Amino acid sequence: MSEKLHNIKILLSEFYVVFLLVMAWLFFGIFAPGFLSFRNIFGIITFSVILLAASLAQNVVVLTGGFDLTVGSIISLVTCVLSVLMVYSVIGSIIVAILLGVLIGFVNGFCAARLKIDPFLVTLSVMFLIDGIDLILRPAPGGWIDKTFANALLLNIGGLNVGSIIAFLALTIFCVVLLEKRHFGRLIYAVGGAEDRAILRGINTQKVKMLAYVLSCLLCTFGGLYMAAYVQIGDATIGSPILFASIAAVLLGGTSVSGGTGRALNTVAATLIISSITNFLFYIRVIEWWKYVFNGALLIVVASVYYWIERRREK
Amino acid sequence: MKIQTIYLTSIGAIVVLLIISALFAPQFLTVEHQSSLLKRLSVYGLLALGQTLVVLVGGVDLSIGANMLTLAIFGGDLFFHTGELLLPIIIVFVLGALIGFINGVGVGRFKVPPIVMTLGMMTLLTGFVLVYTGGSPVGGAPPALVDFVFAEVINVPVIVIVWIVLAMLLWFFSRRTTLGRKLYAVGSNPRASYILGIETWKIYSIAYTLAGVLAAIASLIYLGRVLTPALSVAPAGIGTEFLMPSLVIPVLGGCSFKGGEGSIIGALIATYLYGMLRSFLLVMGFGEAGVLIFTGVILLGVLIFQQIRGGRLLQFRKLFTRK
Predict the structure, then answer these.
(1) Best CA proximity match to B217, nearest among B118, B129, B38, B96
(2) Is residue A5 part of a domain?
């Protein structure tokens, strides 16, 4: 019996964000009847698939002790590239977008891992660069996205975007399995947790970090494809809000910025919390702007408590 | 020695820019243009000074732009409704300091990572401003403030003098006072500073509070210049257009984001360099996209250059071969 209790305790401390999400949903459900309806929850999940891709991308990099400020810009870049090139070839434009994502990830990873420049600053400069390219490609929102491409991604059946749900589940399973079950995932934790020890163990830490950045950019490219399918135009600034939201989601999910601790499932839950707040405020007809207050306060409070407890534990 | 090299590099870059602009756009070197450039730069310059102080202690303040814009909007509304001059100014200063202090306590006392704390603060301020104003421009600057902002002493705008004098004071503070030296000490090694008996959380609070006060001063100048601050509701948060330069300038000025390295003078020179470069590119017709790309390339270049000087890149070939 006590062993069972102990297990539950561990589960609670490991996945407290998931419980936070359940509590938030129950709370919202009480105050806004209809919030917990199938359709609304479905909508929230559909709505957050792009943010999820960006958050999981951010999570991978933060786990290695880095930072990726390019997530939002890559999503914008993908919409711009698709909207420009799709006229010529649908498949070709997607391949170009993916290749660009890999290239950016490689540049980020090379500068941050090999040259050992502060990742915050590297990705900040690359972000400026991509934003500039975005603006050249699409000075104003516009362009054309293939309808069949959008339908293939969204799979709209009876007003429900089944494709988004599949993408949401696929992203979640991919990241959880990769980080928790595969060798590469364990390497990421090892590099983020104690890099010097990982080096002594013979792990090529630079390679792991570099691959983490490439993976992050690939996930963002995936998010960008969905963004393009949703808005059906190219927009150079559409990704910028996602950057801060993705950082907030990762931090709310309890991933430590010094690297090495954090679960992918918590990031998924945190993403859903952030989307749910927006949805809830819409539901109870409060001005949407309160969501900034909620998100900011939530971030500060959760982070304060989290790091305060962590410091206590160290003592 | 090291810092002097960075001064020389920045000054060299400025000289090169001045020569190029003399060739391509001679109107650049007129007194009027330079004075209006400096006037525009003073807001960015003050924010960059605040950011530099925070970076010196090893932090980063993502809320500095939002702080500035919030105070400008709130202050403008206060001026408009109370009709007084002194009281709103005092309130703006107190609020700026308070926001900075809360950041400092969060970072210093609760050990929240600076990025998390200040990102949360930025989001919070964005929410407050949007809810308070309803998204539309409110308030207005009093004539006295406008007169002050537009006043000139022999072709030199008063606000530029304010900016330079503040920079000098901060330089003196950071280099010649015990408290200022503690900023460097905590920045380069918080643990050792703590063991030596420095109350690190107080140093963090002081740096962040000073950044808040500088944001308050910048907000008053900004308010006087634009009369009614408009909200460009970037969904990420307000004030990001002021935040980004404030992150770029310290790097150009030789600050290390690991803390404990960099100087106020470097930031001051870098502000001018950044402003020159930006307005030069705009005049040459590269547009906002060109400015972004150049900023990114130059930033990366500076960062890689710093690593070369750190000796890590000396054997460049080794980078491309496996260990």
Answers:
(1) B96
(2) no
* C-beta separation of B65 from B238 below 8 A: yes
Residue A94 has pLDDT above 60, yes or no: yes
The model's pLDDT over B25-52, given as tens digits with 9 standing for 90+, comes to: 777 778 888 888 888 899 999 999 999 9
Structure tokens at A149: 């491409």
**Cα A197 to Cα B310: distance, rounded to the nearest angstrom:** 24
Range of the domain at A83: 16-314
CA A212 to mean position of chain CA atoms: 14
Q: Which residues 234-273 of chain A have a CB within 8 Å of chain B?
A: 237, 240-241, 243-245, 247-248, 251, 257-258
User: Is-contact A267 A275, C-beta < 8 A?
Assistant: no
Q: Which residues, numbered 246 to 275 in chain B, qualify as contacts with chain A under a Cβ-Cβ cut-off of 8 Å? A: 247-248, 251, 256-258
Q: What pLDDT is recorded for position B322?
A: 47
Structure tokens of A6? 């102990």
Is A3 a domain residue?
A: no
B296/A129 CB distance under 8 A: yes
Task: Indicate whether A282 belongs to any domain.
Answer: yes
Domains of chain B (ranges; CATH) run: 2-310 (1.10.3470)
pLDDT digits (tens, 9 = 90+) for A212-256: 999 999 999 999 999 999 888 888 888 888 888 888 889 888 888
- In the A/B pair of chains, how many CB contacts fall below 8 A? 171
Predicted confidence at residue A14, as pLDDT, reads: 77
CATH assignment at residue A174 = 1.10.3470
Contact B207, B105 (CB under 8 A): no
Closest CB to B234: pick one of A116, A240, A308: A240
Which segment of A224-233, B226-235, B289-298, B306-315 scores lowest on mean pLDDT?
A: B306-315
Strands (DSSP E) contained in chain B are 152-153, 156-157
Query: Cα-atom radius of gyration of chain A, to the nearest Å?
Result: 20
- Asked if residue A90 belongs to a domain, the reply is yes
What is the Cα–Cα distance from B39 to B36, expressed in whole angstroms? 5
Contacts of A141 by beta carbon, 8 Å cutoff, 6+ apart: A233, A234, A235, A236, A238
Letter string b/e over residues B210-219, b meaning 16 or more CB atoms within 10 A of that residue's CB:
bbbbbbbbbb
Say which amino acid occupies B47. L
Tell me the angle at which helices B158-176 and B178-188 cross, rounded to the nearest 10 degrees: 70
Total count of domains within chain A:
1
**What is the Cα–Cα distance from A131 to A119, expressed in whole angstroms?**
18
Q: Which of B148, B162, B138 lies closest to B70 in space, CA to CA?
A: B138
